[in-house]
Structures are given as C-alpha cells and as structure tokens.
Amino acid sequence: MSLKPERSGRSGVALATVAGLALMAGAFSLRGLAHAEEPGRRLPEAAVTAKEIGLRTATLAGGCFWGVQGVFQHVRGVRQAVSGYAGGDAADARYSAVSTGGTGHAEAVRVTYDPAVIRYDELLRIFFSVALDPTQVNRQGPDSGPQYRSAIFPADAEQAAVAKAYIAQLDAVHAYAKPIATRIEPGATFYPAEGYHQDFMASHPNHPYIAANDAPKLRDLQALFPERTTPEPTLVGGRPPA
C-alpha cells in the first residue's frame, strides 16, 4: 500500500477520504520502521566538477517526484523544477501507466539551473545529501517499484562523467553504510507530469504523505545547506501557493 492516494487526471485533484488518510498515516508508521531511509547528511564536494555555460537542465529521479521537486524548488540558482517521467516511451508518460511499474519510466524531476550560481555537481551533492536515500533499490520509503528507482538521466557525456565520478567518490569514502544504487541512464527523454502533480509539496504542505516523507527533506536542505537555500519556492505555476 502506498501512501500516495489515487489521483484523477480529469479533476486535477488528489482524491482521498478522511478515513483513507488515517489509514495511510497508520501504514506509514508501520512501513517506515521496516524501510527507514538514511538520514540527510552534508556530503563532500565533488572532486570532478562541471564546466557549463548558460542555462542547463538536470533530470533526477529519487522516488516520489513531489519531494524531489519540492527540494529543488528551494535551491538557489534553480530557475524551474518540473515533475515528470523519464526512462520510457512517450505513449506511457502518464501517471495511470507509470504507476503500474511496467513502463520503464521513473518519476523524475527536470531541474533548470544557472551554472553561474550552482553547478551540476553541486546539484548532485544536494540530491544525494537530502533528496533521497540512494542505497535503496527500486523503492524510496513507503513507495516500491521500478518507477520509484534512484536514477540520473544525464543530458550529455559531461553530466554522465560527473555523475559517475561523484558516485564513485562517495562510495570510496563510505558516505553511506551501503553502496549507492543510483543508476545512470543516458539518452532518456523527459515528459512533464500532469498539472495536478506540479508544485504539490508547496501547495499541500499538510498532506499526510508530504508531512511524513518530504517535509523532512526540506528541513534537511535548510539545515545542511543554508547558503544554498531560498526561503520561497520557485514554482512551475509562477505564483505563490494559495
């Protein structure tokens, strides 16, 4: 059972009854004990850095895209963070298909950033430090299946090389108790998710799933990387949440 409720693409609203929310909260308390994520930590800077000019994009997957998007919307130098799907075909790039786990897609976030403010390797440092537990395979927290895998979808050979080097660096110093399981998957196309998934963490801060799984990631970002954090999120909708 996932804590993420059924959603309606037609209405654009997450559907959940009061009783269902109570059941989901109870499920988290049980499953969270069995599948606890590694806590956030300020990982070392990358030894291999990116050399980029002009606005660039980074596509990252780390479980439910709500939390990954919410983290990067608060990172200084990020111009936009969009929830979506990567790793599969265009025909399957919709939540109803991806949620089955059989499309090849992962829930992912495309981050548009200014490398004059924050480099690609610095984004990866934040990603591995606070946005996910990179040692989990085909799951994050209460969500399981290949659609929740940890993956990096590099835009070019330089991004792929920087990502590979940083993962090797972290494993060499035993940054985590277990080896990093994050996959590097070049050549993938990113497809934006349905509108009701965008800005979900900012718009629904009290949602049970957000409070249990994603709010701690944002608190880790603010505590571990205060110099990289912006107080207000950069929203896809272009306006503050209601």
Automatic annotation (TrEMBL):
Question: What Pfam families does the record point to?
Answer: PMSR
| UniProt EC number | 1.8.4.11
Q: Where is the active site?
A: 64
Q: According to the lineage, what is the superkingdom?
A: Bacteria
Q: Which reaction does this enzyme catalyse, per its entry?
A: L-methionyl-[protein] + [thioredoxin]-disulfide + H2O = L-methionyl-(S)-S-oxide-[protein] + [thioredoxin]-dithiol; [thioredoxin]-disulfide + L-methionine + H2O = L-methionine (S)-S-oxide + [thioredoxin]-dithiol
Residue intervals of the Peptide methionine sulphoxide reductase MsrA domain: 57-209
Q: Cite the entry's keywords alphabetically.
A: Oxidoreductase
UniProt entry tagged with the keyword Acetylation = no
| Family of the protein in this entry | Belongs to the MsrA Met sulfoxide reductase family.
Family annotation (NCBIfam families): msrA (TIGR00401)
- Could you tell me what this protein does? Has an important function as a repair enzyme for proteins that have been inactivated by oxidation. Catalyzes the reversible oxidation-reduction of methionine sulfoxide in proteins to methionine.
Protein name as it appears in the record: Peptide methionine sulfoxide reductase MsrA
Q: Which organism is it from?
A: Methylobacterium cerastii
